[in-house]
Amino acid sequence: MKRYILFFVLIILIAFPAFAQIDSTLLRRTEKDTSRIQMNMDAVYNRPFLTMGKLPVSVGGYVEANWQHLGTDGISEGHQFQMRRLTLFVASSIYKRIKFLTEIEFEDGTKEINIEFASVDMEFHPLLNLRGGIVMNPIGAFNQNHDGPKWEFIDRPVSATQMLPATWSNVGFGLYGKLYRGRWVYAYEAYLTNGFDDQIIRNVENKTFLPASKENPDRFEESFNGVPLITAKTAIRNRNVGELGLSYMGGVYNKFQEDGLKLDQKRRVHVFAVDFNSTLPFTKTWLNGEIAWVNVDVPETYSQQFGERQVGGFIDLVQPVLRKPIFGFEKSVINFAFRTEYVDWNKGTFRETGTSIQDDFVSIVPGISWRPTSQTVIRLNYRYNWQTDILGNQPSKTAGFQVGFSSYF
Questions:
Q1: Rounded Cα distance, 46 and 234, in Å
Q2: Which residues contact 93 (CB under 8 A, 6 or more apart)?
Q3: Is 401 strand, coil or helix?
Q4: Which of 36-40, 198-202, 302-306 has the lowest mean pLDDT?
Q5: Which residues on neighbouring strands pair with residue 294, listed in sequence order?
Q6: Kind of pairing, strands 333-344 and 229-238?
Q7: How many Å apart are CA 315 and CA 141, to the nearest integer?
Q8: Contact present, 145 and 194 (Cβ < 8 Å)
Q9: Is the pLDDT of residue 2 over 60?
């Protein structure tokens, strides 16, 4: 416990000497606030909201739906129509420096219903703000900035959704803050929350799989082992260059004792991530990338198909090719988009032979998107995947087209 108290004391001591300004009226705007340099950590509030008169409550949300026709090694399920998700936002300015926001997501119709965010923010100082409730652990950039209408791709990045647990949130408390200095902005977030459980190595995927812990609904009411998960991120952004973020998430994932009886040693999971995004000044090309490393203390009794180390990431390139009125939409933009992504589910070697363990995933996704407005996107993607098994056999190949839309409302 002393270690966690010291962790927050150090954050407070670092935060107090600096001074900055934070716009406390953000939730009262009907459009996104562009008066400040926006960062990935601002994504939770950097959304369009609808207000009514002087009511203190604002509402909003977004919707995603698509059609796809994919095949793996010549075998296809044919034409598929999907209602990927419907997400609702409700925000309230409780007082001039106290605000609340919740994000509730319905996936695949109502197959999954999740509270992804439900926190009260209290602003004491621009570099010292308290957040408590269901918070979104800021590992990488996509976990913070995942809204469908912001992306030119129908599928979310595999490294962010299957290696890392995208939209990973837990109950807890923490601090965050930002410091503005001319064209530069510096930011941090630090949280203690409930964390992972042993499903990351005990799951139907039969491999080390961090998203499996999302299936545990009890994480919102109790910790699996009583040890807090630490998540911390620091980021820097320049108005002309872009944003660079460094983040860490780690803690004990197994139940090492029960009613005072020792069951096992403490087994930890550590995740490190680096993210970067920038817009090239002359061509307006948007570059966005993220890479993450996962380290898990897997018991020796488990087979080698459960990886102790994983690495993966993605790079997106979006190039506007046409800006002109189309069908009466005055601010229409047509973009060319390209994504490449890679995941190594098991970065290591076999004990018996010393040869590399494979289990790799590679994908390329070219696409075209039309934005009639900045808040709505219609997307055409072509997806091509290579998936290699643990033994390095001939990879299975998946390919096909996807067409869909996503829009705030």
A1: 19
A2: 25, 27, 28, 56, 99
A3: strand
A4: 36-40
A5: 271, 310
A6: unpaired
A7: 12
A8: no
A9: no
Least confident range of 14-28, 72-86, 316-330, 367-381:
14-28
| Predicted confidence (pLDDT) at residue 94 exceeds the cutoff of 70 | yes
pLDDT score, position 18: 37
Give the other-Cβ count within 10 Å of 244's Cβ: 15
Fold of 2-408: Porin (2.40.160)
Q: Binning pLDDT at 50, 70 and 90, where does residue 36 land?
A: low
- What separation in angstroms does the CA of 160 have from each of 26, 157, 290, 312, 353? 28, 5, 9, 8, 31
Please give the span between the terminal C-alpha atoms of the chain, in angstroms, as a whole number: 44
pLDDT at position 307, please? Answer: 94
Q: Which tokens go with 15?
A: 């935060």
Distance, in Å, from the CA atom of 37 to the CA atom of 167, rounded to the nearest integer, reads 24
Listed residue (334, 394, 402) closest to 365, CA to CA: 402
Task: Report the alpha-carbon distance of residue 269 to residue 251 in Å, rounded.
Answer: 6
Q: Which two tokens stand for residue 49?
A: 């909201």
What is the DSSP code (8-state) at residue 47?
S
> Model-level pTM?
0.87
Alpha helices of 191-282 — where are they, by DSSP H?
none
Chain segment 353-384, per-residue pLDDT in tens: 889 999 999 999 999 999 999 999 999 999 99
The secondary structure of the chain in percent helix, strand, coil, rounded to multiples of 5, reads: 10, 50, 40
Integer angstrom CA distances of residue 18 from 9, 65, 126, 180? 16, 45, 8, 9
